[in-house]
Design brief:
- By secondary structure, this protein is α+β, with helices and mostly antiparallel strands.
- The chain has 2 domains: 2-20 and 76-224, no CATH class; 21-75, no CATH class.
- It contains 6 helices and 8 strands, in the order αββαββαβββααβα.
- The protein has helices spanning 2-13, 42-58, 119-137, 177-180, 196-203, 219-227; strands at 28-33, 36-41, 79-80, 107-113, 150-153, 156-164, 166-168, 209-211.
- The strands form 3 sheets. It has a 4-stranded antiparallel beta sheet, with helices on one face.
- A hairpin with a 2-residue loop joins strand 1 (28-33) and strand 2.
- The longest helix has 19 residues, at 119-137.
- It is globular.
- The two termini are 15 Å apart.
């Protein structure tokens, strides 16, 4: 498993959004939109600006306005900390709670800390934390108190994550042949839920959404399996 993690790490490190390398500083900028600011790549921002300029020149109200630049994808390999970890497959969704979101908007929540092994991933985590601090500092008019992404308790650095379980189904993101060979519990038709309300909501999403399983591994279990061989 260590070799597989290092292999995955090397693949990720070739991408623009790998936050363990300082080069992540240059390609990213913050874009202010109404009440929020989003991190985008400069390339995506330039493409969106060109599309908007062309749309403006055409001056045709019947045409669909171009989409804004897509948010940047950032990546890092972490160890999921057992505290403040909410990884129930249906997100403990309860539609009767005040301000409850719709089921398709359900997100998993957890904290990522430095992996215990291999050493390269521990070093990556420290670098990623520092780079994320730098990126957060580039926000226009940042507040003095930063919260929501990074935290440190008792000397343990943590990166906060929210993982969307579902995404709208399109022609571009249909299940791949490899995904179709997995057990049904990884796809929308067999996704595990714990309540009747969640099951009803899930049944209504079969034709409109797909699942996004969180790619995580039980390293302790793998260690025990190796020791018994």
């Amino acid at each position: 498993m260590d070799a597989r993690l290092v292999e995955t790490r090397n693949i990720l490190s070739a991408e623009t959004g790998f936050v363990a390398i300082d080069a992540v500083h240059n390609p990213h900028i913050w874009v202010a939109e109404t009440r929020v600011q989003r991190l985008v790549t400069q390339e995506a921002f330039a493409e969106a600006e060109r599309a908007h300029a062309e749309y403006t020149l055409l001056d045709n109200a019947s045409l669909r306005a171009p989409d804004p630049a897509e948010s940047a994808d950032l990546s890092i390999i972490v160890r999921i900390h057992p505290e403040n970890c909410f990884l129930q497959a249906d997100g403990y969704w309860n539609p009767t709670r005040p301000h409850a979101s719709s089921f398709e908007q359900t997100k998993l929540r957890f904290c990522g800390v430095a992996p215990s092994r291999p050493a390269v991933l521990r070093d990556d985590f420290d670098a990623a934390y520092s780079n994320l601090e730098w990126l957060m500092g580039q926000v226009q008019h940042p507040t003095k108190k930063r919260q929501g992404l990074l935290s440190s308790e008792n000397g343990l650095w943590r990166i906060q994550f929210r993982h969307a379980i579902f995404e709208p189904l399109t022609e571009d993101n249909a299940y791949t042949p490899e995904e179709l060979t997995l057990p049904a519990q990884y796809r929308i038709e067999g996704w595990p839920v714990s309540t009747t309300a969640a099951r009803t909501a899930l049944n209504g999403m079969h034709e409109t959404h797909r699942t996004r399983p969180l790619q995580a591994y039980d390293m302790a279990l793998l260690s025990r399996l190796r020791s018994t061989r």
